[in-house]
Amino acid sequence: MSRRKRGLLDRKRSRARTGSDEHGHEDTEGSDDASESEEGPEPVAPPEPIASPITAPPPEPPLIQAMDLEAMEAPPTPTLPPQDVQPVPRMPLEPPPPAEQPEPEPPEQPEPVTHLDEGDVLGQWVVETSIGDSQGCALFRAHHKNTERIRVVLKVRLDAASAATPDLVHEGELLFALKHPNIASVRNLKLTNIPPYLEMDELPGERLDRLLRGGQIYMAQALDLIEQLLGALVYLHARGIVHRDIHPGNVMVRNNGVLTLMGFACSTKTDAVRPTGRSSLGYLAPEWPEVRDLNHIDLYATGCLLYELLTGRSPFGAPGDGSPLTVAAVLRKKRSVPFLDPGDRFHEDLRAIVRMLTSAEPRGRFPTAATALGRLQRVDRSYAT
Hints:
Layout (H helix, E strand, L loop, with lengths): L2 H22 L4 H11 L81 E2 L2 E10 L2 E8 L6 E6 L9 H11 L9 E5 L6 E5 L3 E3 H6 L5 H20 L2 E2 L8 E4 L4 E3 L6 E2 L25 H17 L12 H13 L11 H10 L11 H9 L8
Antiparallel strand pairs: 1-2, 2-3, 3-4, 4-6, 5-6, 7-9, 8-11, 9-10
Helix pairs in contact: 5-6, 5-9, 6-8
């Protein structure tokens, strides 16, 4: 109970007592006063508590009651019906007009290389010496610029200001697929270089045309070289390839006596309708250009080469400048000669082989290179020196 309420109750009690003394206790007032004066004031007992009809108000409930979150269930999420939302189309942005740029100047074309001297650098190779010419290209021996032990033969297309050299590409692709001990092996093809060139394995030796200029070759060596050449032709013809340019300039004789056939730029397939070029005129078959069996072109050229090795002279001499009139004149002369004969100082079997290989009529020649090779291998060489 608060102190204010207790004070109000004490005042009410004192008023009640004062009123009762005034109405019913007048006779004792004098005696009480006398006794008080004699004995002193009587101690007053503390008032007894009187039950108050007013009760204390109940405690007020808290404004926020504790909530049992675990017992409560989350209200279901309202679902909206699906709606087709159409994307807002965007207006295409027009690209800004390109800025005008000056036209690029064409790159300067390098000047063609017309010759190479000893010590000139071609790609990664250092030119040493010239071997000769072959099919409009120059042949050079060369070594690597970092070491002289790595050596190659370069077939270089001089006067070529661009990489448009289909003859080198044709020869490189053809030689890369051929693997024979008597056929040149290609290592690489460089068309981006000026001048473009073809890399071949090193061939230590001399070309056959240079050997012939030095004098007559012994018959035993001549027969051995023709036997190797016919073996290479058997390999080529079995794969449908005709060389079409057999002559001493495309034959390399190594120091160990091994023959290597080069110059495949004019080579073609036997299924071609007709050849697209011609070989060296002195070794060209007389039926040119009406060729029915392309294999006979190689056989006729091999017979002319055998005749030159045995006699030391070219069968038809220097053919001239290669003009159409010269070609026609040489072909007429060849058609008038039934065959070539090295002479009676050679064995009859060997003379017969030369006659069959150089027959003016294709049907008079050996049917295949394998047949000619077998016939040559049966020739008695006991007298050959």
